[in-house]
Predict the structure.
Amino acid sequence: MTDKVNNDNKFTKQQPLRHSLASVTLNGDHLKINKQLYQILVNKQEAINLDVLRKKYDPYLDQYDFLVGDVSSDHLRLRGFYKDNVQTAIDRKQRAIADYLMEFCNPGGPYFVLQLLTPVHHYKTDSRKNWGSTKKHRQSARLRKDNNLSYRHHQPMVHFKKRETGKMSKEVGIHHSFIIKKRKSSN
């Protein structure tokens, strides 16, 4: 009976890999995963296991500046974070790492934090965010605004004649009071 239960348990079966195995090498406090070089910032309770990391690392994680890995029930969970200056959700930024460790990781459980050293990611900043901060930009914006206002004054205004309505009668019911209007005929 226990053999049948163990065969049906999804967690005891070997999970298929959805990506190729990563090339992971450790050199002091630096860790190279594929072509990415990381510095180990925190390695609580020797959480870094190269064999498990080789299997769990997905190339999708290459885009992040920080990697956090926590071990729970002999399973490694990896999560990526960006630098604080990147325009992304606040829970994906570097300042959210401490909150993530407090809320989602087992208290006292082993975890590690890696910081990407190379290649350095270059992010586009939103040029509209700082637009208008210089005197020249403010003046050009004011001129455009003034030009648009003067242009609007030269356009002819179109007026539509309002339909005339006349008051017919006022009826008061038990719960309602309303007015019936009838249009005046143009005869």
Remarks:
- The chain has four helices and eight strands.
- The CA atoms of residues 128 and 158 lie 36 Å apart.
